[in-house]
Amino acid sequence: MPAPLNRVATTPELPSTADVVVIGGGIVGVFAAYYLTRRGLKVALVEKGLIGAEQSSRNWGWCRQQNRDARELPMSTKSLDLWERFATETGEDTGFRRCGLFYLSNSDDELSGWARWRDFARSVGVTTHMLSSAEATERGRATGASWKGGVFSPTDGIADPASAAPAVARAILKLGGTVHQSCAARGIDIEGGRLSGVVTEHGTIRTKIAILAGGAWASSFCRQLGIRFPQASVRSSILSVSPGASGLPDALHTSAVSVTRRGDGGYTLAISGGGRVDLTPQQFRYAPQFLPMFVRRWRSLALGGSEGFKSGHETLARWRLDAPTPMERMRILDPKVDQRTIQLTHSRALELLPALRNTNVSAVWAGYVDSTPDGVPGIGEITTVPGFILAAGFSGHGFGIGPGAGHLIADIATGDTPIVDPRPYHPERFERSAWGKVADF
């Protein structure tokens, strides 16, 4: 029972030239292609599998400012506006709505942390409400429990992971861009010291600009170009249940389990931050840089198995441009579900929200959350390969900030004034130190 996903049409013929080629059809890649196409550029989007089939359809669907790291908050705020504008501009439905996000806790430490973030948020014009025990208990009455406190962020919201990336891809097609599924990018051509083309399994597209939005595959792709991009993937397992529960919040987080209403009226259930680290050659290579991250989050992570080796996305191998690559052998990352996590998540959800006992498990799935050492994405042009723009390592935050990231990428590619300050995101920061500041939230 894989993650639900809407399908989108594929452009039948690969163009010989393009102003920009976007590699990767996840939420960041499609939004980058969309904003570039809106500016009148000839854009080709190439995806080795299906649009949105990896982590972009396997996440919770949260679009939040609440508890964002200071470096990501400006992009989060811009993204919420862009989610809304996209529907108006295109008529396409991503399922986005500002339903507000609701947090409950009985931990004094957790509540203190949220209060500190509230104070910071006020300084940058973001509204979030700390809830008293009485307010949290009343708003969380569906749990049937008393709570010490909580948070409600009224301007945050959710979108539909099954619909969002395909909706943006359809908008690209309407604007005259091209979308190529089952078309893996194997590498790039370089002439005169700068990028001159993208080599795909179906031919080469001549271009001066390529954007790599390859998700969990980005580091191994960069390695082919002599670019060192530290990346580690965490295998996360979640599930959805059928419609049938009433009186529940649209989006609720607790330390035990989090629930999100889906477009069909069912709910996605997940444990925040939980996952397994599948050991791979890439994991070992970048382990020193990820040590601060693992030290902070070791309680929520566990060692995995051989799934990472089987998937091939974290290989250290070099591949040829005239032969099938690991991406063609694994079109869609669909790793093995951790059944223990699924059972724990479901049992916690039923205990937290008794109304969920009127539902049935409708799907279970796993996905790879691609992370950077500091938990902040790498976005920027690589100076050693002019014309090559990297956008990866979104660390589980990519879906919500996809529109803002896509807009920023388009700004970088066209030389326009950036929608947010790009400096905190530039991937070359990882060359300066392995001990950067790990994201607070």
Walk me through this protein's architecture:
The protein is α/β, with parallel strands linked by helices. The protein has 11 helices and 21 strands. The chain has helices at 27-38, 73-90, 108-123, 133-139, 164-174, 218-224, 281-297, 307-311, 326-329, 339-352, 402-414, and strands spanning 20-23, 43-46, 62-63, 101-105, 129-131, 149-153, 157-158, 178-180, 185-191, 194-200, 203-206, 210-212, 232-241, 251-253, 258-261, 267-270, 275-277, 301-303, 361-371, 378-381, 388-392. The strands form 5 sheets. It has an 8-stranded mixed beta sheet, with helices on both faces. The chain is globular and about 65 Å long.
Write a concise synopsis of the structure shown.
This protein has 441 residues and is α/β, with parallel strands linked by helices.
